[in-house]
Amino acid sequence: MMFRALSSSTRVAMLKLLLKKEMHISGLAADLGISVPVAAKHITILEKGGLIERRKFGRTHVLKAKKEKLYGILDVFSESPTVKLPKGSSLLDALKSVSAIDVIKIGDKEFITSIDGEKGYYIYEVDGEYPNIPINDYKLRKSIQIKLKKLVAVAEKEIAIKVI
């Protein structure tokens, strides 16, 4: 049902708008240049696909994209390699052996700069926990499962700073 929901350019356009802000059905229809009944039909399909949620305030319905669901759609297609290294190796050494991960060195620290060519900032999780040490200082003592997560900007804040 999810892929059916994404098969329409109108529904994809709706999702793009709803990723930016919550909207009322009539506002969404106006922004897309379609009628409210047509928008409502598309909304129903997106809801059945689990891609949006609707909140009701009396007779007003406000729509919001389920960002986590959208970001996780393609996870089933991602590769999960297994790396074998001796005890005491660094976690970063393990990651460097995976061809899809790019790392840069700044001073004495190393940072992941892209995964599968997708540049950005990444955090890591080991066996479901976020370690409190930099990735290049993490030493392997046992077999672990690691997840790399890209930090995705969901909000933007602009601040003016005046020097006096």
Protein model, in words:
The structure is a single chain. The chain is α+β, with helices and mostly antiparallel strands and 164 residues long. The protein has two domains: 71 residues, Winged helix-like DNA-binding domain superfamily/Winged helix DNA-binding domain (Arc Repressor Mutant, subunit A, Orthogonal Bundle), CATH 1.10.10.10; 73 residues, no CATH class. Helix content is 30%, strand content 24%. It is built from six helices and eight strands; from the N terminus they run ααβααββααβββββ. It has a three-stranded antiparallel β-sheet. A three-stranded antiparallel β-sheet has the order 4-5-6. Strands 7-8 form a two-stranded antiparallel ribbon. A hairpin with a 2-residue loop joins strand 5 and strand 6. Helix 3 crosses helix 4. It is elongated. The model has no long low-confidence stretch (mean pLDDT 85).
Quick structural summary:
By secondary structure, the chain is α+β, with helices and mostly antiparallel strands. The protein has 6 helices and 8 strands; from the N terminus they run ααβααββααβββββ.
Task: Supply the key terms.
164 residues; 6 helices; alpha+beta; 8 strands; single chain; three-stranded antiparallel sheet
What integer is the average pLDDT?
85
How many domains make up the coordinates? 2
Major sheet: 3 strands, antiparallel
- Kindly report the spatial arrangement of strands forming the biggest sheet: 1-3-2
Topology:
Layout: H1 2-5, H2 9-20, E1 23-24, H3 25-32, H4 36-48, E2 52-57, E3 60-65, H5 67-72, H6 91-96, E4 101-106, E5 109-115, E6 118-119, E7 122-126, E8 146-150
Antiparallel strand pairs: 1-3, 2-3, 4-5, 5-6, 7-8
Helix pairs in contact: 3-4
